[in-house]
């Protein structure tokens, strides 16, 4: 299968699918949304999440009928291994923001071949910026190539973190934030990944599902950033973990805090 995949074409297709989906989402931005809860009252899903995933899954199936799909809202496949071409789809990352703020949410797709990241695409829907790339492509914001972020220490930059981890001081997050230049809580893994890719933040920590980090992981690692679990171990692409993305120095310093346990 690897010989039949044109990486540039794959990236172009994913960008086209996501851009089209983003236009549809924006058209529904101020609708009277149908909002449901999933695991808890703050874990939301809307009719637009579902429609968007159905659309993206349909596009992938037409273009790559042998591929398998891991989708947040359940319209993909039951995937138990990473053999072959696997797409990870997050139709609206930051649904709470979509519902409450009408901004700071993303559409994301990551494409992996035999467990290796090929292409990641994240679109900040309202801002209109699309981040895309992979190891054979480089990483871009729209058409501008992004340089490798400066290897900052934890103390020299901002740290993105999820609200629950900080509020409950899970895995020394209060200490990590205290050692940084300050915390930033956005509520969308995709948007947080774009901040780290651009060097605006030098790290991000949150409990994430594979569709939350698959696209960002491809681009981050292409730029020399580290993406692991909070203890510095490799991530499983089929299970949830507390995920740590950061510059080499910031990553090492946050991992070191975990050794205090």
Automatic annotation (TrEMBL):
Mg(2+) 2 binds at residues 90, 93. Transmembrane segments: none annotated. The keyword Transcription does not apply. Mg(2+) 1 binds at residues 72, 92, 212. One of its GO terms (molecular function) is inositol monophosphate 1-phosphatase activity. Its cofactor is Mg(2+). One of its GO terms (biological process) is inositol metabolic process. InterPro entries: Inositol_monoP_metal-BS, Inositol_monophosphatase-like. Keywords: Hydrolase, Magnesium, Metal-binding. PROSITE patterns: IMP_1. The keyword Hydrolase applies. This is Myo-inositol-1(Or 4)-monophosphatase. It comes from Agrilactobacillus composti DSM 18527 = JCM 14202. The lineage of its organism: Bacteria, Bacillati, Bacillota, Bacilli, Lactobacillales.
């Amino acid at each position: 299968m690897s010989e039949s995949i044109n990486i540039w074409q794959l990236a172009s297709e994913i960008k086209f699918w996501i851009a089209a989906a983003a236009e549809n989402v924006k058209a529904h931005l101020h609708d009277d949304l149908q909002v449901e809860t999933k695991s808890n009252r703050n874990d939301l899903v809307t009719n637009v999440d579902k429609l968007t995933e159905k659309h993206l899954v349909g596009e992938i199936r037409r273009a790559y009928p042998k591929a398998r799909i891991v989708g947040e809202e359940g319209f993909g496949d039951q995937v138990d291994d990473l053999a072959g071409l696997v797409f990870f789809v997050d139709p609206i990352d930051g649904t709470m923001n979509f519902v409450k703020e009408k901004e700071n949410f993303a559409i994301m797709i990551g494409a992996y071949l035999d467990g290796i990241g090929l292409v990641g695409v994240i679109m900040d829907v309202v801002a209109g910026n699309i981040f895309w790339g992979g190891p054979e492509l480089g990483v871009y914001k729209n058409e501008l190539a992004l340089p490798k972020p400066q290897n900052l220490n934890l103390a020299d930059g901002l740290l993105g973190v999820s609200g629950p981890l900080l509020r409950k001081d899970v895995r020394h997050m209060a200490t990590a934030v205290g050692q940084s230049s300050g915390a930033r809580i956005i509520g969308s893994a995709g948007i947080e990944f774009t901040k780290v890719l651009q060097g605006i933040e030098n790290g991000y920590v949150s409990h994430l599902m594979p569709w939350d980090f698959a696209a960002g992981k491809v681009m981050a690692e292409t730029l020399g950033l580290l993406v692991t679990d909070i203890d510095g171990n490799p991530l499983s692409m089929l299970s949830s973990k507390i995920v740590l993305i950061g510059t080499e120095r910031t990553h090492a310093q946050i991992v070191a805090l975990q050794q205090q346990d």
